[in-house]
Amino acid sequence: MVLPVSGIAKGEMGAKEIPAGRYAVFLYKGSYMNLQAVYDTIYAQRIPELGCTLRDEPSYEKYLNDPRNTPPEDLLTEIYVAVA
Question: What CA–CA distance (Å, rounded) separates 71 from 84?
Fold first, then answer.
């Protein structure tokens, strides 16, 4: 995703360019409080099942709805894991 020129991050948010390459993408529905368990499952089970190896890049999250007006159990998060 490319931000328009007028898109400027404020406060605790920031903009960062994500390196090009292959990513395994996972959709998680639920509270942010459970994200660590989701990552544990991704790294211990899903990545090996997919036959992928990890690249030396951090994972990224894309929050698809607003936690201010969405119940925790309905929050949607895309998780991007850099793989080779």
Answer: 35
